[in-house]
Amino acid sequence: MNSTYLQMFSTVTEAGELRLELLEKPMPQPTSSQVLVRIEATPINPSDQGAMFGMADISAAETSGSGKGTLLTAPVSAGGLRVMKARMGQTLAVGNEGAGTVVATGDSDLAKSLAGKVVAAMGGAMYGQYRCVEAAACLPLQTGHTAKDGASCFVNPLSALCMIETMKLEGHTALVHTAAASNLGQMLVRICQSDGVQLVNIVRKADQVKLLQEMGAKYVVNSSSENFMAELTDAIHATGATLGFDATGGGLLASNILSCMEAAAARTPGAYSIYGSVKHKQVYIYGGLDTSATTLNRGYGMAWGVGGWLLPNFLARAGMDVAGRLRARVAKELKSSFASHYTNELSLVEALQADTVRQYYAKHTGEKFLICPQK
Amino acid sequence: MNSTYLQMFSTVTEAGELRLELLEKPMPQPTSSQVLVRIEATPINPSDQGAMFGMADISAAETSGSGKGTLLTAPVSAGGLRVMKARMGQTLAVGNEGAGTVVATGDSDLAKSLAGKVVAAMGGAMYGQYRCVEAAACLPLQTGHTAKDGASCFVNPLSALCMIETMKLEGHTALVHTAAASNLGQMLVRICQSDGVQLVNIVRKADQVKLLQEMGAKYVVNSSSENFMAELTDAIHATGATLGFDATGGGLLASNILSCMEAAAARTPGAYSIYGSVKHKQVYIYGGLDTSATTLNRGYGMAWGVGGWLLPNFLARAGMDVAGRLRARVAKELKSSFASHYTNELSLVEALQADTVRQYYAKHTGEKFLICPQK
Questions:
Q1: What ipTM, to 2 d.p.?
Q2: Which of A125, A281, B81, B196 has the highest count of CB atoms within 10 angstroms of its CB?
Q3: Do residue A313 and residue B302 have CB atoms under 8 angstroms apart?
Q4: By the 8 A CB rule, do B87 and B10 touch?
């Protein structure tokens, strides 16, 4: 085995420059409870790109150098630097999840049991050729499943499953989801179907409506429709949804979902209350596809909430048993409910080319890129 | 006893008119578990004015008629009518809380035990000369305390106490409060002092800073200061506050509080996380002094929430035991921690005069009006 390996790091400098580059690191040795994974496939999720690119202006990104000397740079505005203050000057490892083959193990029984197996793992620093991880944190894939099959085992599948867990934990009975034609959105459609959970899908385009309807989704609302608010209210009334997950974050969408939940609640006969409906209505923002400010018009009484939602925080709250149950389900349904499709496969060097970066940075619905660090 | 009494009602008509008027109602008879209270003092809280005035344009309000035929009218815009749709055409009783003398009782032991006593009650329809209420919902005042002393027993005192209860229930250890020079804000200063809870007060004016400092408040920040964000961050860092209560609702204030909480958290040594600090940061909006939209810039990671907060909803969540404990404390500290001061005392007819309405509708900090329905 080599004595070094390449890994991707991101730095925001005090001079206002983002630097994304490959650094040569000494090959790590697994401790007793760890395994060394040769990373073979690791996806570029929207949630990875915050750490990769900070608040840099990617339209002005440039690539210099070649091979392991490849460097992507991009300017960061003064406003971006203020927000990025806590990370300034730090060289951050990037990449949340990935999969590959266990090529060395520690001497614990669990670690040794994974020797030679294909496993998936989440935990950061995955955009590299090798990664030491705790054996207990690995998800062994079923026989016949490849690293590419399992590369996106965690972020999207667990997020979709944890949306349903959040729904149950917080006493709701149906869901609203935005950017619903995304990779994650399609998983959510499939698992809501098999679990009998009513789901209202919000998309922006007619072809996305068609895509989800062809998958069997019952409630699909197009936010570009001029009757969007009325159609969303009808769907919310039909399903009883009082919980939404919003991937976009900015603008009026979260507020509009709450308005429609309130309008749907007002259709249920009962005394008028000046303080609005009593049932708590919640929208969690789990992404930032729209980086503009969130605007809440508050025309929905007093029993409402909007907040950030982050998978690791929710898993910590739900506890180990829930996490274990959900991981087992992902492994079992990896090529059905949780299948991912990739637009392109990139080497570590290709992932630093400015034109390629601009392509995946655009986060077009349904597009997803995979890094294959051994390529 | 008279066979009828006068009570204030509010209606928003389909034609776009707000009507606030007195109606003559038959004197109610208490059931077995009820008492009949002669209402002698009932405050006009900001939270009453939503039901009283809907979304009407009070600058254009007019009063016609006189005596019990007095009628206040004001135009409601098309936008206001959309928001008020659920109440349109309904004649709503107004006034959340009040106090007075029990003049008749049902035959239950509890009801009979209140005969002749001065009690406070919350439950709506208080802007009238009489009100039947459940004996169990009454708070008997201590000997020597008058109806005027007890008129504001519930909304402000219980809100202030329940802010501290919310803090404990949700795992926070200090508070931020806006519009902190208000009647409620001053109560909160007093009870935080006696309970040893650290409190960051946000006010808008230098004389309000002085007022709270003279009361002994340690952290008072002026949002009109050009160093507001830095000063607020310092105060939040010193107190460890991760929970705020905002009476204003509109604009950037809630978002700015979250930004300062995040900046304060970033001062604590620890690894940088691209997803922000892990401790949940929450701002509850409990009023709408600023009716403009709430703008959230989301520059504070993923562990944050903003939501509506309503006293009855919180009391329902906290349970009967907590409510009983808090009510007992209010009765005990009625003339110390929970003393209210009134700008003016109005008869029911005076409360319908357009110029007077504009005065209390302005909700100037520290101004509070009392209706004395027997006047």
A1: 0.90
A2: A281
A3: yes
A4: no
